[in-house]
Amino acid sequence: MSKSDLTHLIQEYGHVLSCFFDHISDMIFLMAVENGDTFRYVMMNPAAMRVAGLSEEAYGRSITEVYTGKKGQLLNSIYQQAVASGKPLSYIDEEEGGGDIFGESILTPIFNADGICTHVFTVTRDVTERKRLEAKLLYMAYHDMLTDLPNRRLLFDLLDDAMSRAKEYHHLLAVLYLDCDEFKMINDTFGHDIGDEFLTGFAKRLRYCLRDSDILARLGGDEFVVVLPVIHSLDEAVKIAERIVQSLEQPWQIKQHRFPVTVSIGIALYPYDADDKFLLLKRADEALYQAKQQGKNRFKLYCATT
Known about the structure:
- By secondary structure, the protein is an alpha+beta fold.
- It folds into two domains: about 5-130, Beta-Lactamase (2-Layer Sandwich); about 145-300, 2-Layer Sandwich (Alpha-Beta Plaits).
- Helix content is about 45%, strand content about 25%.
- A five-stranded antiparallel beta sheet has the order 2-1-5-4-3. Strands 7-8-6-11-12 form a five-stranded mixed beta sheet, sandwiched between helices. Strands 9-10 form a two-stranded antiparallel ribbon.
């Protein structure tokens, strides 16, 4: 079917098409085009009126009359692009005010026999649930589902950014690698449900010890990493490590279970100990191992061994 045939079909059978579109769940709009830059509503199906919040009062009015401000200007610009391209145009729109209502639209310009665009036919599908699922999957890919903290993947990205800023502004950065000395005992004695509840509380206590700008991530099990993206001396990292040790050694009460907990921490500094994120984490992990070897419940600065 040619574009002129489609124009004729709309003109001759507009009422029949409108009745057909009434039963379609997608939003259907037919816009009349004036001078290539003004678009007036001439047909909408019930789904379009319901989801877009429009009424019959919109008929004959232009996009910029129905939607004032940035919303109207954006929609009008998109319709102009469709006319200029001369072919179907696809875009995804996030509804202003709704916050998370998404519409995926196909705008098809319709030309008469003289090559003038007379109408734009638009089909818009509500893809809100799809977008929510995509956002959820993306979040899950970068976060630990138990503690809601950044996972290893996101930690690497955040550490990359922090190290780039530290290099640019010539300040220090510290990585604290830590784990709970008693976690295996807690899991083995009280079960995984209590272990999971403990890890959630463990993460919260850690967060309370940190500054708003500091990064806290869970790598898995009881392994956590703290990134102090801006420090001006080693003493700042030491004070935060001391605060963590003191906070976590306070007795824990989960349900009817009460138990003591200690934490071991390894500290590595950028750029002194390493200027690569993987090596910096490795250095902090080695310092953690040294802390455990020396009796646990302490922090240890990385020191190269010969």
